[in-house]
Write a structure and sequence with these properties.
- Helix content is 7%, strand content 52%.
- By secondary structure, the chain is mainly beta.
- Strands 1, 2, 3, 4, 5, 6, 7, 8, 9 and 10 form a ten-stranded antiparallel beta sheet that branches.
- 30% of the residues are buried.
């Protein structure tokens, strides 16, 4: 079982609260890459990783609906070295110039645009932003683990 948890700060000049996520999932794409790599049937090169936000949550068989509009784009992220099967983001992840939207999930991708989704997690409470708001995931608040 995998998980992805995060606390997100939404701000428009000043923070307006925190939002937590529930369990997340490795995508079938990533599960296959990990198995192939670990069992020596194929190599899996270290990808650059980008965090994206969703208005319709993805599921393993469906990409969901990623946020669009205004100045939104996926953000490159770095993570700490895993310890005890878990890791978290090494620095703040700021989604500035958000559109007016309700965010319900987050995803980790191997590309700034298109590419493959590696894993995703659902928000336990929706995050609403107004046009121009900044949605922040603070350093250490995007937790990813494999049980």
């Amino acid at each position: 079982m995998s998980y992805l948890n995060t606390r997100i700060n939404k701000s428009h000049k000043q923070p307006k609260g925190e939002i937590n996520t529930m369990s997340g999932n490795l995508t079938t794409y990533l599960e296959n890459k990990i198995l192939d790599h670990c069992l020596g049937t194929a190599t899996f090169e270290k990808p650059s990783v980008y965090v994206g936000l969703f208005t319709v949550a993805p599921i393993d068989a469906d990409f969901g609906k990623e946020v669009t509009g205004n100045g939104y784009c996926r953000k490159k992220a770095t993570f700490k070295i895993a310890n005890d099967g878990a890791t978290s983001n090494a620095s703040n992840i700021d989604f500035d110039e958000m559109p007016s939207v309700t965010t319900v999930a987050v995803g980790i991708f191997d590309s700034l645009t298109e590419g493959n989704m590696l894993l995703f997690g659902y928000l336990t409470q929706e995050a609403e932003t107004d046009e121009g708001d900044t949605l922040r995931i603070d350093k250490g608040d995007l937790d990813i683990g494999i049980d």
